[in-house]
C-alpha cells in the first residue's frame, strides 16, 4: 500500500522550471533513491514533499490524505520527516539530550519536561534506545562539536527517528563524510526500521545501489528514468547523463 503519492508536481523559480511534472509513489518499507546531476531539482522536490516549498501545481498524498496545502510542521506530526544536507545540530548539547528534545517535540511536552522527572527518565530511555539502534550508544554523552563528522550525520538521523516518521526524507546523509566513516553510515541505514519508507537523495552511487529498492533519476527537473537498481544500471540514457560524473557499474 502506498504511504506517499506525489502527482504531477511542478515548480518554477522565475523562468527556471525546477521540478517538471514529477510523479512518484512510495510504499511502506520501501527505499527510494533520488539521483541526478547537480541542479537536477532533487532538493527542491524534497522541499516540496516536506512542505518547505509550495508547488505551483500537482498534489501530494500521505496515507490517502491530501497534504498538498499543509505546512511542514503538520506534515511532521503526521509522520513525514526530513533531514538536511547541512547539519542542524546544536554543537554543544550532548547527543542523548538532543534526541530527548526531539522526543519531547514529538510529544508536545517541552513545558512539562522538568516538572515530571519520571517522564523525563522514560524519554531518556527511549532516546538511548534510538541511539543504540544506530550503534551510537558510544557517543550518547558526547556533544557534536567533539564527534566525528559521520557520527554527526548519524545523530541527525537519530533526531529524525525520534519524531517516529512513517516516511523519512534523507538529504545526502553521506555528504562530507570521509571514506573511512562511510561504512558506519551504510550499516546504520541498513538497520532502519523495516516498515519505514525512505526517500534518499545521494550522490554516492555505492550507497544508492546497495540501499535502494527503487531509483528515480531526475534531470532538468523531470523524471528521466525509474526502476530497480538493475534497470537503472543498464539504462543507456542514464549512463549518458552520468557519463564521467558517477560510477554506475
Ligand atoms: N530558492 C531558489 N531560487 C532560485 N533558484 C533556485 C532556488 N532553489 C534552487 N534553485 C535552482 O533550482 C535548480 C535545482 O536545484 P536543486 O538544489 O533542487 O538541485 P539538486 O538536484 O538538489 O542539486 P544538488 O545535487 O547540487 O544538491 C538549480 O538550478 C538551483 O540553482
UniProtKB/TrEMBL annotation:
SUPFAM superfamilies: P-loop containing nucleoside triphosphate hydrolases. Coiled coil: none annotated. The keyword Transport applies. InterPro entries: AAA+_ATPase, ABC_AA/LPS_Transport, ABC_transporter-like_ATP-bd, ABC_transporter-like_CS, BCA_ABC_TP_C, P-loop_NTPase. It holds the Pfam family ABC_tran. Keywords: ATP-binding, Cell membrane, Membrane, Nucleotide-binding, Transport. This is ABC transporter ATP-binding protein. GO terms for molecular function: ATP binding. The keyword Transit peptide does not apply. Residues 4-245 form the ABC transporter domain.
Amino acid at each position: 500500500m502506498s504511504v506517499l503519492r506525489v502527482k504531477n508536481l511542478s515548480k518554477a523559480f522565475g523562468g527556471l522550471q525546477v521540478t517538471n511534472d514529477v510523479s512518484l509513489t512510495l510504499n511502506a518499507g520501501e527505499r527510494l533513491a533520488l539521483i541526478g546531476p547537480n541542479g537536477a531539482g532533487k532538493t527542491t522536490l524534497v522541499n516540496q514533499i516536506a512542505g518547505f516549498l509550495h508547488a505551483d501545481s500537482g498534489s501530494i498524498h500521505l496515507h490517502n490524505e491530501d497534504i498538498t496545502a499543509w505546512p511542514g510542521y503538520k506534515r511532521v506530526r503526521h509522520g513525514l520527516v526530513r533531514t538536511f544536507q547541512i547539519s542542524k545540530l546544536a554543537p554543544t548539547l550532548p547527543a542523548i539530550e538532543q534526541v530527548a528534545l526531539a522526543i519531547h517535540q514529538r510529544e508536545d511536552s517541552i513545558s512539562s519536561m522538568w516538572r515530571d522527572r519520571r517522564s523525563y527518565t522514560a524519554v531518556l530511555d527511549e532516546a538511548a534506545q534510538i541511539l543504540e539502534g544506530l550503534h551510537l550508544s558510544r557517543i550518547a554523552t558526547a556533544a557534536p562539536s567533539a564527534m566525528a563528522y559521520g557520527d554527526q550525520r548519524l545523530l541527525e538521523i537519530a533526531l529524525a527517528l525520534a519524531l517516529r516518521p512513517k516516511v523519512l526524507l534523507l538529504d545526502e546523509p553521506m555528504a562530507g563524510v570521509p571514506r573511512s566513516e562511510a561504512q558506519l553510515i551504510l550499516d546504520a541505514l541498513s538497520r532502519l526500521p523495516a516498515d519505514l519508507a525512505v526517500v534518499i537523495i545521494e550522490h554516492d552511487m555505492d550507497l544508492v545501489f546497495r540501499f535502494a529498492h527503487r531509483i528515480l533519476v531526475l534531470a532538468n527537473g523531470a523524471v528521466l528514468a525509474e526502476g530497480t537498481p538493475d534497470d537503472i544500471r543498464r539504462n543507456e540514457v542514464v549512463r549518458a547523463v552520468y557519463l564521467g560524473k558517477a560510477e554506475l557499474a
